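Form 7-S
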Amino acid sequence: MASDAPDRNPALFSEATKVVRLDSYTYEANLDEDFGIGAVPNGGYAVSCMLAAASAHLSSRRQPDVLTAHFEFPSRTSTGAAVVVIEDVKVGQQISILHLTLWQGGLLSQAPWVTPSVSRRSILGYVNFSNLRAFTGMTIPTGYWETPAAELPSPMPDFQALKTEGSDKGWELSRIPKSSAQIQRSLQRWQFYLPRHGPLTPGVCDMWIRLASGERITQGALAYVVDSFPINMNTFLASTEMRELFYNAPRNPETSTQENHSEDKQRAGVWLPTVVMNLEVKKALPEDGIEWLAVRVTSKQIQDGKFDIDIVVRDGEGELVALSNHVALILEMERNTVKRKPSTKSML
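Output:
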């Protein structure tokens, strides 16, 4: 996401998700601070590193693609070294099932690579891998494609204008407030373009996204795609009544600057950690990736500090690329940045 705050040259996603093979079932990753929210790496980014290890593990079987994935986040991750341990649950001709564990803290320079009494299991995952380009079989159009939900958001953007001007007649770049720029580093890796005049459908956040680095979005980035949201997403998910009451209310010109500063401060003070994330990939992207994706986000209930998120990802032709759903919490940012209890750590 673009920001008015200066930003050093950040790492490219393709570089920040590289893994190194340590042995037949273990890979080393390095979680880059440029993809963090506060002190914690973005969950979708960390998962992308795990999926890169899984893809490398199955490369000899020519099963490079995620079909489905389920992830749990029992402990906060941190920037720096991590180890991904892979367990073969079932290795099949068409689909292979793996169990993935991302470990941090107490890492060793040789097998067993982790110290059980010190190292943390930060992310756990079950994944189905396959070759999406090799699938054949029955295809039946469903009634979903006759509903308004299946249509791409209108109007179609002028993509060149969005890149050069930041907006066109229907869409505009969502900008990060200066007060949040240093905390929301992961969001600065994206450019989110939202409807200029509010939700196209009540409670729906439609957006077109691209990587701010200019990299093309590849298959390996889809987990990061479905866990990256504009900082003002809440204004689109809110009910019509809530929007009118809080977001569309008339402002006093004499106090509007102070009100905006207060809202920015509130946004900067909130952390939305993922509890559970599910991903289903519907389509193999081109080998060299794609520049633009259309993303639709909805939430059925935001209540008592927790909420659900449903994500639909499509390409410029309207074809489904991925589906995802999450359960997440709403916490104060202090929970993100509080220091861990000291432990003896031997890093790789």
